[in-house]
Amino acid sequence: MRTPLRALLGATTAIALGAALPLTAQAAEAGPPPTSVAASASASANASPADVTPNPSHAAAGVRFPQSAWSYHITSSCSGHEDEIRRGAEYWGYAVETAFQGTRVDCVSGYVPDCNGPRDVGCNWNSGERIAVSTQVNDLALLAAHEFGHNWNGHTAQGCATWKSPYDVMKTWTC
To answer: How many domains does the chain have?
Structure first.
């Protein structure tokens, strides 16, 4: 009798686990993923900045673009990362790099302090007054494009930012 009882318990457990696992996976995806300093490569899975030209026809959900020249300056804290930041700025068009005017860009080697949360890897204060980005992410150009995008836009949706479109650049997470 013990063997059939164990078989019945084993089958019941397998059925219960089979029913619970899909719900567990969906629940894990429904919440915000951890914003890791060591971000995964999925943030740039679809394209690179050279492959995606911002185009207002791609602008879903009201993604706005600058209509005239705007400026930024990269501080010495970003030494060695200037090209990636330039690619992020150039994504939006009309970007002019200056020595000391426009949006100030600072770099940090970990999480950005004094932003919205303790694990932020990028922040834009006052729609372009100052930007800070973590140099520890896998795609700094994408993070810079996202933060520069906050000069004109809020987040478009929850999810991982990618180069797929301006809408996707402005998603909430660096994954």
So the answer is: 2
Q: 152 and 73: one domain?
A: yes
What's the farthest any 2 CA atoms get from each other in the chain?
83
C-alpha distances (whole Å) from 94 to each of 15, 58, 66, 170, 175 are 58, 18, 7, 18, 28
Read off the pLDDT of each residue in 137-151 and give the average, rounded to a whole number: 97
pLDDT, position 96: 96
Entry pTM: 0.68
- Is residue 2 over pLDDT 70? no
Distances (CA, A) of 32 to 120, 123, 130, 136: 13, 17, 25, 20
CATH number of the domain at 129, please: 3.40.390.10
The predicted pLDDT at position 117 comes to 87
Q: Give CA–CA dist 145/54, Å, rounded.
A: 11
Q: What is the pLDDT of residue 63?
A: 84
pLDDT of residue 171: 95
Where are any strands of DSSP class E within 29-150?
70-74, 95-97, 103-108, 122-125, 130-134
> Is 6 among the domain residues?
yes
Range of the domain at 11: 1-31
- The span from the CA of 105 to the CA of 140, in Å, is 12
Question: 125: which 2 tokens?
Answer: 């204060």
